[in-house]
Amino acid sequence: MQQNVSLKPYNTFGIDVDAEYFTALHNISQLPALSAAGITRHVLGGGSNILLTGPVKGIVIHNQLKGITVEKEDIDYMWLRAQSGELWHDVVMYAIEAGLGGIENLALIPGTVGAAPIQNIGAYGVEVKDTIETVDAWLWDEQKVQTFTNTECCFGYRDSVFKHSLKDKTLITAVVFKLSKHPVYNTSYGAISDELASLGVTEPTVKAIAHAVMNIRRSKLPDPKVIGNAGSFFKNPTIPTTQYETLLVHHPDMPHYAVSPGQVKVPAGWLIERCGWKGYKKGFIGVHARQALVLVNYGNARGVDIWQLSGEIVASVHERFGIELEREVGVW
Ligand code: FAD
Ligand code: NAP
Description:
The protein has helices at residues 31-34, 88-97, 190-198, 206-220, 241-250, 268-274, 303-321; strands at 2-6, 18-25, 41-44, 50-51, 56-63, 68-73, 77-83, 122-123, 126-127, 132-139, 144-149, 170-180, 228-232, 238-240, 257-260, 263-265, 281-282, 285-287, 294-297, 330-331. Helix 3 (190-198) packs across helix 4 (206-220). The longest helix has 19 residues, at 303-321. The mean pLDDT is 97. The chain has a five-stranded antiparallel β-sheet, with no helix packed on it. It folds into three domains: 2-63, 2-Layer Sandwich (Uridine Diphospho-n-acetylenolpyruvylglucosamine Reductase, domain 2), CATH 3.30.43; 68-180, Uridine Diphospho-n-acetylenolpyruvylglucosamine Reductase, domain 3 (2-Layer Sandwich), CATH 3.30.465.10; 228-331, Alpha-Beta Complex (Uridine Diphospho-n-acetylenolpyruvylglucosamine Reductase, domain 1). The chain contains seven helices and 20 strands. Strand 6 (68-73) and strand 7 (77-83) form a beta hairpin. Helices cover 22% and strands 29% of the residues. The protein is of the alpha+beta class. The site of flavin-adenine dinucleotide (FAD) has 33 residues, from strand 3, strand 8, strand 12 and strand 13.
């Protein structure tokens, strides 16, 4: 246990604030001692989906639970158990090397396995929920590990039970993924098929799709090692089709994607760009010049200033389009 530890190396925004106490978790046998009542606990994975707005009171538990094993297999599937401190991208690479399909479109998403179910990570037409069999989580109050089935996780768009009734009540220790030995490829995102074509790939494989996704991501997204960021700051809003049709009168080029009967998803990046924020820079804070969904730290930004900027963006999108953006990044 260390005291007054700077979290700057532990969050991809690169915000420099201290944790009152800091410890690394290498084994679940450490958990009972960390379960004492009255302590505020913060579970830290890769720090790629949090904004630190001030010194963190209590104890920050840096998840280092490691290991990937084959749980079982049959002729169609292999079930992989990954400990929650494994890097998500390493699990994707493990699956690809084994020729297993289901998570190749999720290559290069930063962060840990344990955080993946929390916001049901998604990209390029795939969500992790479609491969999750079970999630093991330590319950702080009950002091035991409980296994949650996929249904019990209540997954939604960037959402799960761990953001609601189980918020701050668990530490996810391991996830079991059911991956296919006969992958069905999802190249419906135009950018993937374009990239496969430019790579000269005519017969997709899980490896080729992952490489296409990695190329696209590297070309479009700022690398947190160079410019501090936490990926998309906002979720893409879903609005009633009737509202979308009304907006079309004044914004005929507004993009949209059907979500369910009567509901459409509108890209938040487009709304923010239309409000003039793309490329905005003030002091150390800004909105990325190539991707308006990404708020950035150009140096020594304070988390509160990034939070305030996000509020100004929410207000201007609401004023112009009547759409309320929801933040995806969590705040500590
Ligand atoms: P952290 O930021 O460390 O934690 C996030 C939250 O989860 C915190 O509240 C934390 O307390 C909690 N938590 C973490 N681990 C555990 C655990 N084991 N048990 C209980 N609670 C836990 N997301 C997408 O969905 N799709 C993308 O394509 C995508 N692209 C990104 C690109 C970039 C460049 C960046 C910086 C981020 C991107 N993200 C994306 C967001 C982020 O990578 C994911 O949300 C990721 O799952 C966060 O993992 P983490 O380990 O860094 O979580
Ligand atoms: P993009 O391809 O420019 O598209 C903009 C938005 O439109 C996306 O966010 C996506 O919504 C939606 N979209 C595009 N094509 C679609 C289709 N065929 N069907 C349904 N929806 C479609 O997006 P981008 O910013 O470069 O990101 C590419 C992918 O990586 C997206 O899936 C995005 O979510 C993911 N990503 C996520 C983060 C994060 O931090 N959460 C960061 C970077 C990238 P969806 O977001 O719902 O897919």
